[in-house]
Amino acid sequence: MAEEYREALLKKDDYYENCPGCQVDQLKELKKGFPFRDLISIWIVVLCTALPISTLFPFLYFMIRDFGIAEREEDIGYYAGYVGSSFMIGRALTSVFWGIVADRYGRKPVILLGTLAVVIFNTLFGLSVNFWMAIITRFLLGSLNGLLGPIKAYAVEIFRAEYQALGLSTVSTAWGIGLIIGPALGGFLAQPAEKYPNLFSKDSLFGRFPYFLPCFCISLFALVVSIVSCWLPETLHVHNEKKTSSNDSYDALEAATGASKGDETRTDDKGRKPSSNESLLKNWPLMSSIIVYCIFSLHDMAYTEIFSLWAESSRKLGGLGYTTEDVGEVLAISGFSLLVFQLSLYPYMERILGPIPVARISAVISILLLSSYPFIAMLSGLGLSILINCASIMKNVFSVSIITGLFILQNNAVDQNQRGAANGISMTGMSLFKAVGPAGGGAM
């Protein structure tokens, strides 16, 4: 049976014996079982990428305070903004570049470089002794970790057609799990000498670097993922002719998201030469969705960082006076609720109302919800705890509803007449959409 599949593949005009992408296609034909191994591989790679993004927010306020760069307590948030944004600045500057690298040299090198960047620069961030070291290490971490776009292409290339949708949902699920574990690690493992004096002394490494333990745990996990990733198969098609897997990646992504193409359309697409990047930029529905996505991503990340700073500020400054544990608990509960919402309630809402109406309703309610936060700060005790958790859950649910709707709008914007342009720069275009924001919370 295996030899029959092999002979059938060899008869195809576009099959090459020494091409890694063609070898993966052959393995997909031979393997008929459930792809547990591939699902786990993608899951841990995405989790490794998601953890460093959110783990610092519970302790960022105290880290800036300990650096002593802020002359007044009111200035801590000002300096924390630079550290929090440095990761995204680096990512925005290099996301398109990593998409091009993934198309030219392969998905696996980008995955390995991204996980190794977490090992090195996340460790150095935990060992930061001053403000500028923290900014530089976070910037380099964001610049060199460019696998958020290519991992989606890899997810649809590595699976058979019937499991491609499952592969994409695995990416989103792993991202949601990262939103739960990341803040929890940062909240419960930061300042271990103060929280767990029986286990960590003030003279130990974790006592002298109070924010190193959560970063060290993530870096250790990333090291294991980097080693495991060495055995990942490459899915990029490398032929003697000037052809890559860009078209195949885009077609697979369209199939996984439920798009259908007729035989006539496929014939036209094969005969059409890829257009330039300029034709993609002239697609106003696509570009408008990217612009709106950028705005809401800015809003989402600003909330994520400002919420932690506000919650940990003292009562006299209008904050909640929370500790890192309190903030980590709120963010972890919100992340878990977000995961439940994505897997259960959102599909029904999207089916009844449609993705864009859901996004519009969520945006309007978010304005009213955020306006209530100053009044929530006037509460205390159990009432404060219940309301702040409910507000945080609702805010994250609305954010993911908005950005998921924008993703669907972006997919629909690439219409039949412009698929040639999109195919020609499949990873570059996907990375452009990724570059303008933080991958939308759990909506990656």
Automatic annotation (TrEMBL):
Pfam families: MFS_1 (PF07690). The keyword Membrane applies. This is Protein ZINC INDUCED FACILITATOR-LIKE 1-like. Keywords: Membrane, Transmembrane, Transmembrane helix, Transport. Residues 38-444 form the Major facilitator superfamily (MFS) profile domain. Coiled coil: none annotated. It is found in: Membrane. It comes from Populus alba x Populus x berolinensis.
